[in-house]
């Protein structure tokens, strides 16, 4: 299969492919999504095949607005309406109990709930509108690898496996959306993102955070809960921002004759100089929000470095605000490995 790029000028071609049950990746403010008609079970099944994704891992349904939910959701809580008024379009995914049979089970992972989001990207909203159906849109990458923040990342992973990619430039947020489960008594964050617990509580009051790790037998309610995610091929270690020093970690690695790459703030990279084989600057101003935006792109860049690396060392940040989302992704990418002096 040939994978083609599409643009605003050729949007109609992407629309036709999706209507025929093919897969087309699309841009959002978070990461690129792998699109298929959410009402077409055969098309959605192709998403799992293209990504190599477990079929009990539910998919987020992308819509053009709140009115789309009436076709699928049993009842929309008042709190959810407040959140949608405040944060849609934007990086917030909401989970609701759905009308039985309104969506194929391949979308929901066999659950009685489904996840919905309105992306903040005009080109993709036009795509969904013209297709005439909501689109599933998991990250458009090989399952388990760092999420794609450019069309080039998508092509690297899925060339020959999908029909096309709607080019929309680099994503502005760089991390997947916050996922909030609205199907229980108290709204629960299942996946942290740019929108934090504080952001949500300012609108609706109490929100809880799910600290539970999925077991092998439980069905995840949200993407990113159960399976290995965000991992490049190269080994990744975190550097404890309180108890460790990059220079010490690099020195120890070089004693073992390892080629070391560093993913960190500009000052850290500058201080290390020629001691390292490769580097990628996460942030020039030292903020975690900028680091989060560049995390996946940095992991991919170092994983594909022209001189193969043995080890990548990555800067950590306090798990406060967006730092919680950043560290959630980094812990999974590294398998929890952290260097402490």
TrEMBL record:
InterPro entries: DHBP_synth_RibB-like_a/b_dom (IPR017945), Sua5-like_dom (IPR006070), Sua5/YwlC_C (IPR038385), Sua5_C (IPR005145), T(6)A37_SUA5 (IPR010923), TC-AMP_synthase_SUA5 (IPR050156). SUPFAM superfamilies: YrdC/RibB. Residues 8-195 form the YrdC-like domain. Its main location: cytoplasm. It catalyses: L-threonine + hydrogencarbonate + ATP = L-threonylcarbamoyladenylate + diphosphate + H2O. One of its GO terms (molecular function) is double-stranded RNA binding. Its EC number is 2.7.7.87. One of its GO terms (biological process) is regulation of translational fidelity. Keywords: ATP-binding, Cytoplasm, Nucleotide-binding, Nucleotidyltransferase, Transferase, tRNA processing. L-threonine binds at residues 30, 62, 117, 177. PROSITE patterns: YRDC. It is found in: Cytoplasm. The keyword RNA-binding does not apply. PANTHER family: SUA5 (PTHR17490), THREONYLCARBAMOYL-AMP SYNTHASE (PTHR17490:SF16). Required for the formation of a threonylcarbamoyl group on adenosine at position 37 (t(6)A37) in tRNAs that read codons beginning with adenine. Belongs to the SUA5 family. This is Threonylcarbamoyl-AMP synthase. It comes from Vagococcus intermedius.
